[in-house]
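Handout, tutorial session.
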Amino acid sequence: MDFESEFLKTYRILKWDEFTVLNNDRISINEKITNKVITKHELLLQFKAELSLLNACKHKIKDELEQGLDVIDTQVLVLLSKRVIELFDHMHVLFSIDEKLLFYFINFCQDNVSYIHVDQLDILLDAVLCTENNQKIWIRLLKLYLELNSFDKLMTVFQEGVRSLKKNSLPLWKIIIRFMQIRRPDMIETLFEEGSNISYENISFYIRVKYLKWCLQYKDIDATRNLFNELKKLKPPCYKLYLIMMAIESETSDFELLTVRKLYDEACILFGTDNIEVWLDYIRFEQTDGSPKLMESIYTRGLWKLEPNLKNTFIEEYNNIKREFMNSLGKEVIVIDD
């Protein structure tokens, strides 16, 4: 008697006649697969039957362990998981796999990751690649591979996901960055460099900022300045990168007014055509930390640089800043009634 039948008999998961029917169904399914006369419906029914049996065995083992009882060979869970995977493989090879079944199978793998070897799932990546570019499926697949302890295969899934999702792959980047920071800190800078140069702005901008913050946290201010000088050369330029660097320089113990002023000047040149805030931030900076007498000249430059449709809003915002500044100096606007 093999260990599967012994387990099922010992714990009365299936009656003997039920186990006989199951074995006959397995033989029939295998013959139909070999002869290429199987239907997707038949495969799906067997897939569900094996999965139901696996879950019944897992629940029985859990009950036995909770009662403090010894459990005989639990390799039955490995065997049943293998059968479920093989049936999925056949469905993928012989028929198309819809997204609902993909989600279902990935959930199965996550629930049974202890009984699965990563090499058994090579066809799963192929199945996902054959579907439409579904971001949720790629996220679930990548999270599954995080649990399978194969760095090479994890990176393969990540790279294929990025290629498939393109500009919609940012969630995959976020997942893999968190993983690298904890599990592979030796590789994180390489990942940041790659992501900073990717052609999709929503991704490259996000990663450049993460890279700069990481550098400040794990290296020092000089390394951060050097990195910023490299990142700012990348096209297209990233406004938030400048904001972060301005904040960093403003908070350093060796604060240099000219350094921050230079950053604002560069940002206004790069982004000042359609960005009111960069001018207003520069004006506020000079008001609080620099030279208030420069506020007017920055305002004039902004009026010259901004798109015509933004100028009225800019004028209004500047007047608000100027009014607040005058009030802070204790000056009042005197209104003379006629």
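The second record follows below. Compare its token runs with those of the first.
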Amino acid sequence: MVRFAALSLLLPISVGAQWLNLKTPGIPRTADGEPNLTAPAPRTPDNKPDLSGLWRPEPSPYRFDLIQDLKDEGIFTPAAHDIFLTRVADFRRGDPVTHCLPGGPLEDFTGGAAQVYRIIQSPAVIAIIYESGFHRQIFMDGRELPKDPNPSWMGYSVGHWQGDTLVVESAGFNDRTWLDRVGHPHSEDLRVTETFRRVDFGNMQFQITYNDPKMLTKTLTIPLAVNYAPDTDMLETVCNENEKDTAHLAGKATAGVKVDPAILEQYTGKYIFRKGPPVAGSFFPQNPTVTLINGQLYLNDLPLIPQSPTRFDSTAATIEFSVEDSGKAMHFTLNAAEGDLWYERRR
């Protein structure tokens, strides 16, 4: 009886996961049966590039933080920077993705629960279905963006072809989504331009540009490589199923402890990622810089709040510096949920 019960528990898993190993029909393959991802990109009957299929964006630190260098933080207006610092101090407790809400433009980076998304292409409309459960429609019928749209989570999108590149213009976002997971804001005036170019069967060049005069002093453009995901499928994702975490989010950074600026100065410099879980290593910056400005220590653009002379909290994770006898930092460990990452100081 016990053996039967155990088997019955396994059945839903094995049946539900069967399609994850099903070979994708109709795609080019090598002589040994493997997907030929360098084969020519397919085209539609009207000779447009066919973007249809399951796609997986490469892990990118930009999905967590659009600013990878503190000096680039100046691209945001003072009002936007104040909102950002408030969210940082609250340890991202209000992150809409954490609360199972749509990520808006962030979904393109699979910054929420999604790992892949599916493009379904027709001449009049292109649909993108995200593994997170959200979707968007890109209308290709020549219509213009609405002049006074009712703000929505995923916005309104229209597209057109420029040669072999799909250009998508989007607007009408509400201001509740974030540009990244650390909390850089946007307003309802946000305009987003995306370009999709399928260079061969398995590789697509993607670029996203943000234009928001209320929050950005100039446009911000981020490139991202996207790869075809063969022989797998999307998993059903229900974010708030059995969700018990958000009630325990404390928010509000502690005041921290006072640390002599001379000690903080010993931590400044450039670091390089040396070891840690691959997923975490691709999520966080590979070559971060620690700086000290007006007595405040930063990891790239994230303020570090001292909990001891060597341990600091941030909205990203806890950071522990290891120092040599002279007091100079040798490396630091970033304690993230995905696992510990070890960064060595560049000499």
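Points raised in discussion: The first helix runs from residue 2 to 16.
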